[in-house]
Design goal:
Number of strands: 1
Distance between the termini: 36 Å
Helix content: over 70%
Number of helices: 2
Largest sheet: none
Order of helices and strands: HEH
Strand content: 5-15%
Structural class: mainly alpha
Radius of gyration: 20 Å
């Protein structure tokens, strides 16, 4: 849940920045790219987090004996 909260915070911060700077002329193509980059970053973080969970579960599966083996 912490990963989801963190990525949601990244997206919310980017949205707030984009809305606050929507009318400035410093950005050549507006601030829509900021939202898209934040969404990509959030998805990348969650993907890496899920891969870490998958690797950890495979490591645990190798260590633990099968269910019927302990009697």
């Amino acid at each position: 849940m912490a990963a989801h909260a963190g990525t949601l915070g990244i997206t919310a911060t980017a949205y707030s920045f984009a809305r606050g700077n929507a009318s400035t002329r410093r950005f050549s193509f507006a601030t829509g790219k900021v939202d898209e980059l934040a969404g990509f970053l959030s998805a990348s973080i969650l993907m890496l987090w899920a891969l870490g969970i998958g690797v950890e579960s495979l490591e645990i599966k190798e260590i633990c004996p099968p269910f019927g083996a302990i009697r």
